[in-house]
Amino acid sequence: MVDKLAEQVHPRNETLNAFRKVPRHLFLPDVELDRVYSGSVIPTKHDAKGTPISSSSEVAIMALMIDALRLERGQRVLEIGAGTGYNAAVLAEIVGVENVVTVDVDPEIADEARAHLRSAGYEALRVETADGWMGWSDNAPYARIELTAATADVSPQWVDQLDEGGILVAPLLLRPHAQALVALRKRGDALESLLVFAGGFMSLRGVGAAADHAHDVGAWRVRSSRELDDDRLLALLREKPNVELLEPASWSDLALLAITDENSLTLSREGSPAYATGMVADDCRSMAVVEWSGGVLAPRLLLISFGAPDAAQRLRRRLDDVRGRAWQGLRIVAVPSGKVRPDGDAVFVCENYTFAVSTR
Fold it and tell me: Smallest Cα–Cα separation from 276: which of 227, 311, 229?
């Protein structure tokens, strides 16, 4: 698993060595070894509807986030979202077990993380049952804070508990189904990105949980950044669609498009985890979405449009703009809401912080 990680992601040696030392199977005791060491994401808890609410993250994403923290021995680190405890153990191998605190809002998950850490020899690592939105003030300030759940805003407590010049790494939920993993450096009460890359996490639970913008339109679940005329939208969806093949594009291309376009939306059938990403015209008289078809071995990208050609033409242009663009070129600035509005190609105003995304 770690050899594959080294080839695909090229993490720092310190990160690779930490992964080599921590036995992942002790944090997933009821999972087959082949699956454990595939390195894939493994859901570990579901809600009453069967939706995953906790997991052991994909190791490639873990490694990218840990590298983004720029960890050094002796730094105090707060992890928000204990999960299985595996990520906290990897952090501890780099900075020292006495320097890591991990918190989880779910007492059952926290208890399981403690048990896993104890079985792997990390019983000295602190696991606290608490709402991560409030951070953990007892050990503050921290040199680094890592959030392993998607958030639509930044908690003022995280900023207060972070050293000046410290780094917060978090999945930012900027639009529905559009996340950016961001390493942010603290500059006073503002935050400036050091690194932005693609990835997705389950949403934060508790006080800071993001609102679910999904709503039903006929047999469809729709997520949009703006209010839509549902009657017009439903009329569109009942029309015979136009289907075309598209030039290849990656998941990260579509995520970047969704982040930077105010008309973006996602569409799915009720009861299905699959969804299509696209956009709707201002007047809701045309819509176009992109979805994959054809399976893993021969995937095809389809452009499915409804109504007038306007939305399909815009979607093609926007895909050409973002296709293959490096996420490293993105810059995100976060300032407390109510202060001077930052400039950017896309600006997101939240209760606590306002985010400006620039595609330089």
Answer: 311
| Closest alpha carbon to 358 in 138, 349, 348 | 348
Q: How far is CA 18 from CA 37, 96, 97, in A?
A: 15, 11, 12
- Decide if 57 is catalytic: yes
What does the pLDDT look like over 214-240, one tens digit per residue? Answer: 888 888 888 887 888 889 999 999 999
Alpha helices (runs of H) in the chain, residue ranges in sequence order: 2-9, 13-21, 33-36, 59-69, 86-95, 107-119, 156-160, 230-237, 251-260, 310-322
In the numeric block, which tokens belong to residue 248? 């290849």
* Catalytically annotated residue among 55, 56, 57, 224: 57
Predicted local confidence at residue 145, as pLDDT: 98
- The Cα–Cα gap between 267 and 165 comes to 40
Cα first-last separation, the chain: 35
**Beta pairing, strands 300-307 & 242-245:** antiparallel
| Radius of gyration of the chain, Cα coordinates, nearest whole angstrom | 21
What is the tens place of the pLDDT at every residue in 10-66?
A: 999 999 999 999 999 999 999 999 999 999 999 998 888 777 889 999 999 999 999
DSSP letter at 62 equals H
Q: 277: which strand partners? A: 266, 290
Pairing of strands 264-269, 220-224: antiparallel
C-alpha to C-alpha distance for 135 and 149, rounded to whole angstroms: 13
Instruction: Give which of 169, 202, 199 is closest to 66, Cα–Cα.
Output: 169
83 conformational bin, left if phi > 0, alpha if psi -120 to 50, beta if neither: left
> Partners of 301 in the beta sheet?
292
Q: Say how far apart CA 349 and CA 177 lie, in whole Å.
A: 17
Sign of the torsion angle spanned by Cα atoms 110, 112, 118, 121: negative
Q: In the block, which residue shows the tokens 């490639």? A: 60
